[in-house]
Amino acid sequence: MRRTWRWFGPEDRVTLADARQAGAEGIVTALHQLAPGLPWTADAVAERQAQIAEASGGALQWDVVESLPVSEGIKTKSPDWATQIDAYRRSMEVLAEAGIETICYNFMPVLDWTRTELRAPLPSGGTAMRFDLVDFAAFDIHILERPGAAESYPPDTAAAAGEVAARMNDSEKSALCEAVVSGLPGAAERWTLEDVRAAIGIYAPLSADVLRQTHVDFLSEVVPLAERLGLRLCCHPDDPPFSLLGLPRTMSTLEDYQAILGAVDSAAFGVTFCTGSLGARPDNDCVAMARALAPRIHFVHLRNVIREKGRAPCSFIESEHLDGDVDMVGVIEAVLDEEARRRAAGRPDAEIPMRPDHGHDILTDIGSGAQPGYPAVGRLKGMAELRGVIAALTRRAA
Ligand SMILES: [Mn+2]
User: Fold this and answer.
1) Ligand 1: distance of its center to the CA of 219 in Å?
2) pLDDT digits over 257-278, tens only?
3) Distance from the CA of 155 to the center of ligand 1, in angstroms?
């Protein structure tokens, strides 16, 4: 597996020099300064590549795009759908010309990811990101005041949410809002509660089946181009992998992936296998999923969670990479087996890029102002642990 590291660009408090010291071999980044729907230019991509090469003395390069965002216009088939598709295709052409082959995206309505606490204290002294279903319901029902929100939770969850909301003071309420809004695409300060309500409202008439078809329609426009350009598109799962805010979700389970991979049966389209996202659902067996989806996995996110038992939706906390409900060693073994299979078949993409996805804030991470989930030391620790597992399994297989 190729060890990569997410970097949010020149604004990221964690530098490329940090990435190199952490053991990264490649960089995962995006032109985060551009709003979804705007075409990426050759100049902007070249500038980002030059920044990476310069800061690392040529040791690192831009391996994976995460994400080339799919605009809400594409996901909702808005009147400017064709223009937005053209912009996406233009960005793909520019990336292919720059020699970048792997493009990650997601197909979640409105939200990119959702947590209720960005820095939950851990007994060890660090902090972790957390999703608490009761807190989220308190946001949904009592702060966002989404019509019909109360009915979308089990009655005991809705009742507990009412008690939580009644106890919260103003600063606790705004911290909860900030945590939820952090997962919206682009800068968090762009979003007001009114914007969130409006964005959700657009999806009100759209079922999961409609969203699935819209996803296939998008892929029908971009996958043939990806084939011609030698690109690999890979879809990140829903995070968390269940419906929130009444929005449809279609990339949460093995069945979801098998449906879309079957509908768009091309090696140029595959999976970003994110163990942390998929693992937040008690009925997802990540090792079995990795083995079932292996031939179409183009990018791997290794992260772990400890979840509340029971059914989805449920609460979870991001755990240490090797200490959670996901059998991390089992997943890595499945990916290494797939790499061996690809090498034997002479596939050019035999080395699959992976990155430690998130890490706890520990040691000097605390108060460092890094992006939530993306501190230097916590991820370095995750990378080192994962690297140890890879080395041990590789030795045993030899
Ligand atoms: Mn991920």
Assistant:
1) 21
2) 999 999 999 999 999 999 999 9
3) 31
Q: How many angstroms separate the Cα of 74 from the Cα of each of 106, 215, 383?
A: 12, 9, 35
Q: Where are the domains of the chain?
A: 2-113+207-303+321-397, 117-182
Q: What amino acid positions are annotated as catalytic residues?
A: 236, 274, 301, 357-358, 374
CA of 276 to the centre of ligand 1 (A): 6
pLDDT of residue 308: 87
Q: Is the pLDDT of residue 26 over 90?
A: yes
Structural fold of domain 2-113+207-303+321-397: TIM Barrel (3.20.20)
Query: Please, which residues have CB within 8 angstroms of residue 349's CB and are 6 or more apart in sequence?
Result: 101, 232, 298, 342
Residue 203 banded pLDDT, cuts 50, 70, 90: confident
Residue at 369: amino acid letter: G
Claim: this prediction has a pTM higher than 0.70: yes
Whether the ω angle into residue 313 lies within 30 degrees of 0, i.e. cis, is yes
How far, in Å, from the CA of 383 to the mean position of ligand 1? 14
Under 8 Å CB-to-CB from 245, ≥6 apart: which residues? 110, 111, 140, 144, 146, 149, 200
